[in-house]
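Section 3.1: Structural characterization of target chains.
Under the original work plan, the team committed to producing a structural model for every single-chain target entering the pipeline before any wet-lab resources were allocated. The record below documents one such target. The sequence was received from the expression subgroup and is listed exactly as submitted; it comprises 63 residues.
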Amino acid sequence: MAYSRTNYLERIVVIQNITLEYKEKGCSQEFIYRKMIKPNYNISRSTYYKYLAVAAKAELKKK
């Protein structure tokens, strides 16, 4: 499968939405990473925090 910026941004949006959902329930980001993100997406902690810093929804709207 070819690399696509759109697919990359969509993956980031999914991870950001999961984080927002669990943050509203009072979970810490570390808990969310260890229990929800790492087992399902197999990304490092530094990548997770980089994903949270990206304005993916805004970039997708531009396209």
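The mean pLDDT is 93.
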